[in-house]
Specification:
The complex is a heterodimer of chains A (153) and B (173).
Chain A (H helix, E strand, L loop, with lengths): L6 H37 L3 H33 L4 H12 L8 E3 L4 E2 L2 H21 L1 H13 L4
Antiparallel strand pairs in A: 1-2
Chain B lengths: L5 H28 L7 H18 L6 H49 L3 H12 L17 H27 L1
Chain lengths: 153, 173
């Protein structure tokens, strides 16, 4: 398995993790904007005005859907990482942005992973994630392309 | 093509909105009133028969009934022709300016409606109700400070300008 993971795949996994929070923000913004534009469609008085907001709502929805699908694909890839602790580090540190010292292992007991353990599992997790992401690389790129087509930077 | 300064346009519309609404109502009323300019069939028949009567007196030898018959036969044609002219006058004087004013109003209202929260509240009081800056109130009904009103006014004009730009660009597509 290890021999199959190239630097390019690892880079893609790291970039994807960094992008995750941006895409989540984008999805939230697109959803808010979509709802606002739907409200404006209802409040419109003139035909041209209504059409303008309908078009904007349509673009927002497309952007929101693409962002949400992208997040789902990444979540799915993380979910397929076999090692549970690696998965925890990926979810909490790489995707949600928690620090390495605050990766929670057990909510009930409030146990956190040590920094060195988290570092070890992160490395392992990224390698596994790279393999999983490779399988969905094309759809992920398509979603990014769709997001930018409808106004996302 | 010279690029339109949308902020200037927004200011111009905001300042003249109340006047534009008044002008629109006036033009609509004038257009309605000018319906009375149309000729009725009776008026045309009378007009033509006056002419026909004079003509028949002048050229008695050529047959008395001809001009009168012609009057009756031509009545519909003359009526349509004269009323077409009347309609052209009404269009030029009232309808065309009315549509122009409506377009300006539409542009401003689309911009105004795109504003949100306090900005919209202030803009409505300033530009639609015509209140003075010192009379502007917030959502809680309390008078806003001059500085707050000026800030909201600036935001409103910028918001209206941005929306007008999007709206006009869309219409030109």
């Amino acid at each position: 398995m290890k021999s199959k993971v190239t630097d390019e795949m690892l880079d893609f996994a790291v970039v994807t993790c960094k992008k995750y929070s941006q895409v989540r923000t984008l999805a939230e913004e697109a959803e808010t904007s979509w709802k606002q534009n739907l409200e404006m469609v209802a409040a419109s008085k003139y035909t041209g005005e209504k059409e303008m907001y309908e078009q904007q709502a349509e673009e927002d929805l497309a952007r929101y859907t693409a962002a949400r699908d992208w997040l789902k694909l990444v979540d799915g890839a993380v979910g397929k990482v076999k090692d549970e602790k690696s998965r925890l580090v990926l979810k909490q540190n790489c995707l949600a942005g928690a620090t390495m010292k605050s990766v929670l292992i057990d909510k009930k007991t409030g146990t956190y992973m040590s920094r060195s353990t988290a570092t070890r599992y992160k490395k392992k997790g990224i390698t596994e994630l790279a393999v999983q992401l490779e399988k969905v690389k094309r759809p992920l790129e398509e979603k990014v392309e769709k997001m930018s087509r409808f106004g996302a930077e | 093509m010279e690029e339109l300064n949308y902020l200037e346009k927004a200011k111009e519309l905001a300042e003249s909105y109340r006047f534009l609404v008044h002008r629109r109502d006036m033009l609509r009323q004038q257009y309605e009133d000018s319906r009375s300019w149309f000729y009725t069939k009776e008026e045309i028949v009378y007009k033509l028969s006056q002419g026909a009567h004079e003509e028949s007196e002048r050229v008695q030898t050529s047959g008395l009934s001809n001009p009168v018959e012609r009057t009756v036969l031509n009545c519909d044609k003359v009526l349509a022709s004269m009323n077409r002219e009347v309609q052209t006058q009404r269009t030029e004087q009232f309808l065309e300016p009315y549509y122009e004013v409506c377009e300006q109003i539409e542009l401003f209202e689309v911009g105004l409606r795109s504003l949100r929260g306090q900005t919209r509240l202030v803009a409505e009081q300033l530009f639609v109700d015509g209140k003075k800056q010192s009379e502007i109130t917030g959502a809680d009904g309390k008078t806003l400070s001059r500085r707050a009103v000026e800030r909201e006014k600036e935001l409103a004009l910028q918001g209206i300008a941005d929306r007008i730009q999007i709206y006009q660009n869309r219409r030109q597509e």
